[in-house]
Amino acid sequence: MAIDAFNTEPISIIPGDSVKWTRTLADYPPSAGWALSYELLNAQHRYEIAATANGNAHRVVVSPQTTQTYAPGSYDWRARVTNADEVYTVATGRLTVTPSFGAVADIRSHARRTLEAIEAVLEGRATSATAEYEINGRRLKYIPLTELHALRTKYQREVAAEEGKSGPRGVSGRIMVRFGQ
After folding, report:
1. Which of 71, 97, 123 is the last residue in one of the domains?
2. Which contacts of 116-125 are long-range, i.e. CB under 8 A and separated by 24 or more positions?
């Protein structure tokens, strides 16, 4: 089953997937000579995507071979139209290139990695690499036990917030309400 293209830019791209969308810009139609292009940019990478004319709309199609080369991360994007010597930015936004399941990478957040490193030290199961792990410029093996417990609580809260939970014990932040007669 084919997935229809969207009429807006994606909020995420999975490397190795096709990406398609259509933009209709009434003031900048392809029939009047306007060309639409996108630029994805973060601190390490820059990608360009060109749209093609599709009647009075601009059609964007990015092949799986192209998206496969996209590095995971958050990207700012901008859409620009050009016609002869005129150039206008018509939209901006942010999207995420998610790690591919085929990729070998640690996709845990900083808070999750740090929490696991602290817990490994506290449980006495730290590997030699983990024993050298740094938090805020300090090495775990040199942090006093009381400070480690305080840092653990701090990172438990951060991880819980990332996961939509309210506290270190994993209590959900949702409030359930039932209305009845």
Report:
1. 97
2. 118/148, 118/151, 118/152, 118/155, 119/152, 121/148, 122/148, 122/149, 122/152
Residue with structure tokens 């084919």? Answer: 2
CATH of the domain at 71: 2.60.40.10
Q: Which of 41, 38, 33, 46 is nearest to 20 (CA)?
A: 38
Whether residue 123 lies inside any domain: the answer is yes
Report the number of distinct structural domains present in the chain. 2
Tell me how far apart the alpha carbons of residues 6 and 178 are, in angstroms, rounded to a whole number: 36
- One digit per residue, the tens of pLDDT, for the chain of length 181 reads 345 557 889 999 999 999 999 999 999 999 999 999 999 999 899 999 999 999 999 999 999 999 999 998 899 999 999 999 999 999 999 999 988 776 566 667 788 888 888 888 888 755 544 445 666 676 655 677 788 889 999 999 988 887 776 544 544 555 666 777 6
Its domain, for residue 114, covers 110-162
